[in-house]
Amino acid sequence: MLFHACNNDDAADCNFMPVVATSSTASNPCLATGSIEIRSPIDADYLYKVDAGSFQTSTLFENISVGKHTVYVKDSNGCEGSKEVSIDTIASGTKFREVATILKIRCSLCHSGLNPQAGLDFTRNCDILANWNRIQARAIEGNPAPMPPAGLIPLAERNKILEWINSGHTFEE
Fold first, then answer.
1. Which residues contact 7 (CB under 8 A, 6 or more apart)?
2. I need a surface site. Which of 102, 112, 146, 171 has the fewest CB within 10 A?
3. pTM over 0.85
4. For strand 79-87 and strand 2-6, is the pairing parallel, antiparallel, or unpaired?
5. Class of the CATH domain delimited by 2-87
6. Where does the chain hold its CATH 2.60.40 domain(s)?
7. What is the mean pLDDT of each successive set of 10 residues along the chain, which is 173 residues long?
8. CB-based contacts of 141: which residues, under 8 Å, 6+ apart?
């Protein structure tokens, strides 16, 4: 979607606003690690911004979260062009996918839905990533009590979770 708006009294000056072209990189689902770069128009007479941010001279925007964003280009006459840009989620790594599957199978009965136990929804990637140490304590070590309450999950699955934790407990791998 592209639109042009003029913030001055002479709307005729806005008839030639160039089309906004961009490139982007994907982001971690829980951290704003994506980027958007405006490829055109590029000129000293243009200012750029993303969403409700401030206009700047740089065409590169970093630390962009997953989702839809609007980039704006404003020329020296105050005319603006915009474009909607979607930031995708980076691909998850094999180790993370294995852990997420184990937690969804073994833990989602209590840790999902509208009122998940302890406020943790292990069907959500960000809850898994943010609570790796709690997962280790409860599901691997049984400290202060084993999770699930009936007893620790099978050793092979605990080992997969521990391998993910020991390799950095990241989304990518």
1. 74, 78, 79, 80
2. 146
3. no
4. antiparallel
5. mainly beta
6. 2-87
7. 47 70 96 96 94 96 97 92 95 96 95 94 96 95 91 95 96 84
8. none
